[in-house]
Specification:
single chain; alpha/beta; seven-stranded parallel sheet; 9% strand; transmembrane helix
């Protein structure tokens, strides 16, 4: 809130500027716009057909376009309409119209300087440029001059673009062209011409692109077709050369046959094991003598059975090799019957040992042996046939990889061909349809716009006022000057004992203030501030009950008013019946000494310590110095100074010492060593830099010796003050 109040005070301080600047701006604006001509607007509307579903074809994909794609198309169209090539065509049409019929504008001075032949030449060049749709070559002197003619008439690209606005209306299908000028016919002519030129240009461009796309796709389609046919022919030729009809079916048949052979081989192996076991069991039932008798008896019959069995094995082999052909099965069954008859014949004979009747076992054994031989021979044939199937399958594997490569290439080529064919058909169909771009609204000459003169005047006044406020705010924000006691406390973190206004007089009579000889409001306020400052200083000094307190009064730099403050505080103490000694400790600038006419000098007193003949009852006594480039310790030593000051304490209630400024370094700090308390004067309306911060840190670190600030030369709000003349403050 405090900052807001300060800013409001700043605005009130500059209220004359805040009123004068907008008033002058309004007057100047009114003078400028008073003769502004009326403005006639014109608007044309172009339907693009991009998002209008009523203009879409059955196979069009416009409805599936993303919003970003649609916006990009509209942006491209707007940029083309605002391009230099389009606006050049409008410029040519405008200048050709003005040179061949009633002009829209009064001829410019440059155009009036052309004679009849020059105008004919300019007209022919403009027509030729319009026909070829070329821009002017500004490197050619003749065409550069024609460009200057366009500019003088306001028909050049920049002039047209300045008063033109091309935009899409929201998310609609329409593009609007707005133009305004001093002539309603001119405004309508410009927007209609630009619409027609853009429509013609866009139509030709689209048709050329469609024809180029159709020809390109047609050639590409032929290339893809030839490539596809070449791949199909290669696959066919490879199958012929390698005698492959259908690799998938052939591999399936071989795999199926292999599985059958493996199944039959497993069954044969089981049968062999079973037969061997059965024959072994029968053999155990016979005595070796019986076997010899039986074998000798059946020798002839066995020979016949072996021959029949051999024939049967041969047929069995053929039966397996020929994929189990039925005709071989019939022959095998026939031989099986013959062998059965031979076995029966053998059983009919009396071959048994009279002691043993084992005819049936012998017959069964013979049958089992024949079955065993057939199974063993059939197993060998199955193994051979399984090896043949395996070799055939291995021969098909390399062909499989090659054929798969051919088929994959053919499939890829076929997909590419189909996609390309669909795209070709779509583009071909679209090229047969007319372009959807058309001018939906033709601009007509209309009425002028309402006058904006008063609006411009009001806006100029408001803007100038806002601009002034912004400038004042920037000044306020960047202004770090200390104006009031609160600012000084905030920055230095030290108390302010009082402040004195900047008095608007060339001289200040302190005696007159207390004798009420100056009863003005300014002097009364100054008197209050002096009393308040004395009270705060006295309260700080009263913390010790000792009489003769020594108070050093310093400042950071020269000229901040510590001489005036010293004199004022001295007079305030005199008014409350205090004995006051005012010592001028500033050897570099002894202002108090020069204006007091004192006969008592500091150097003499420090050397002699003689106070005889001095009247201590005068209320205020001034001890001056003889000046020169010296410091306190250069005048006397520390012990002597302490003794002399103790002597003075017994004669005065308070001793005030004006010291040199702190930027004099040790000259001020030497005085501060011998005083009880220190107060510093700070001039208002100045900033604190790094050098001043160092001196402030020195004062605030004096371990309680520094009691605070006295802010001097504070400006009163709303008044124009003069600086105080410090030369005569003690008179």
């Amino acid at each position: 809130m405090e900052e807001i109040k300060k800013f409001i005070d700043l605005l009130l301080r500059y209220k004359f500027v805040l009123i004068t600047v907008p008033l002058i701006t309004v007057m100047v604006t009114f003078y400028i716009v008073r003769n502004l001509p009326d403005v006639y607007p014109a608007q044309a509307q172009i339907a693009t057909g991009i998002v209008d579903e009523t203009q879409q074809m059955a196979l069009s994909e416009a409805s599936s376009l993303q919003e970003s794609r649609i916006n990009q198309k509209f942006v491209n169209m707007v940029q083309v309409m605002q391009s230099k090539s389009m606006l050049d065509l409008v410029s040519y049409k405008l200048i050709i119209h003005d040179l061949t019929s009633k002009p829209f504008k009064e001829p410019s001075e440059l155009l009036n300087t052309l004679n009849l032949e020059a105008k004919k030449h300019a007209l022919s060049v403009f027509k030729e440029k319009y026909r070829k749709k070329e821009g002017l070559n500004l490197r050619n002197d003749d065409e550069e001059g024609l460009h200057r003619i366009l500019g003088s008439m306001g028909y050049d690209e920049l002039s047209l673009k300045w008063d033109m606005l091309v935009y899409r209306a929201g998310t609609t299908d329409f593009i609007f062209i707005d133009y305004q000028s001093e002539n309603s016919e001119l405004s309508a002519f410009v927007v209609n011409t630009l619409s027609n030129e853009f429509t013609d240009y866009y139509t030709v461009l689209v048709k050329e692109n469609q024809r180029s796309s159709v020809n390109f796709l047609k050639n590409l389609l032929k290339i893809k077709s030839d490539t596809l046919q070449s791949r199909i022919s290669g696959l066919r030729q490879y199958k012929i050369q390698n005698r492959i009809l259908n690799l998938t079916e052939q591999s399936s048949q071989i795999y199926s046959q292999t599985a059958d052979y493996e199944q039959k081989m497993l069954q044969a192996e089981k049968d062999i094991v079973s037969l061997k076991g059965t024959i072994a069991s029968i053999d155990k039932m016979f005595d070796p003598k019986d076997r010899r008798y039986m074998e000798s008896t059946f020798t002839n019959i066995n020979q016949k059975i072996i021959g029949t069995k051999a024939e049967m094995n041969a047929l069995q082999d053929k039966y397996i090799k020929n994929d189990f052909d039925e005709k071989y099965k019939i022959s095998i069954d026939s031989l099986q019957q013959v062998m059965s008859a031979q076995i029966n014949t053998m059983s009919d004979k009396y071959t048994d040992n009279p002691l043993n009747s084992k005819t049936l076992l012998i017959q069964k054994k013979l049958e089992l042996q024949i079955e065993l031989d057939r199974a063993v021979y059939g197993l060998n044939s199955l193994k051979k046939q399984l090896d043949v199937m395996s070799n055939k399958f291995e021969m098909l594997v390399p062909h499989e990889a090659v054929i798969q490569s051919f088929e994959r290439d053919i499939q890829t080529g076929s997909e590419e061909y189909q996609d390309l064919l669909a795209q070709y058909n779509k583009v071909t169909m679209e090229s047969e349809f007319p372009v959807k771009l058309r001018q939906a609204q033709i601009a007509m000459p209309g009425l002028p716009l309402p006058s904006k003169k008063m609006l411009l005047v009001i806006i100029s006044g408001i803007l100038s006022g806002v601009f002034c406020v912004i400038i004042l705010f920037v000044m306020f924000f960047l202004d770090n000057r200390i104006r009031v006691p609160g600012d000084l406390v905030l920055i230095t973190k030290a108390p302010v004992l009082g402040y004195l206004n900047l008095v608007g007089k060339s001289t200040l009579d302190l005696k007159g203030i207390w004798k009420n000889l100056h009863g003005t409001a300014e002097m009364r306020e100054f008197k209050k501030q002096l009393r308040s400052t004395r009270f705060e200083v006295n309260r700080e000094l009263a913390q010790t009950s000792e009489r003769g307190q020594i108070l050093s009064i310093t400042s950071i730099t020269e000229g901040e008013g510590k001489t005036l403050i010293s004199a004022c505080i001295a007079y305030t103490y005199v008014m409350v019946n205090k004995k006051v000694l005012l010592i001028d400790g500033n050897f570099d600038s002894p202002s108090i000494t020069k204006n007091s006419n004192t006969k008592l000098f500091l150097e003499d007193y420090l050397h002699s310590g003689d106070l005889e003949g001095i009247n201590f009852n005068t209320g205020i006594m001034v001890m001056g110095n003889r000046g020169g480039d010296k410091s306190l310790l250069e005048v006397s030593n520390e012990e002597t100074i302490l003794q002399r000051l103790e002597q003075l304490r017994s004669h005065f209630d308070i001793i005030l010492v004006e010291t040199p400024p702190l930027d004099a370094l040790n000259k001020a700090k030497e005085w501060i060593l011998f005083t009880d308390k220190t107060v510093s004067v700070f001039e208002a309306d100045q900033t604190i830099n790094e050098m001043k911060k160092q001196h402030i840190n020195y004062l605030t670190n004096l371990n309680g010796q520094f009691i605070g600030w006295i802010l001097n030369k504070v400006k009163q709000q709303g008044k124009f003050e003069e600086k105080i003349d410090h030369a005569n403050v003690l008179e």
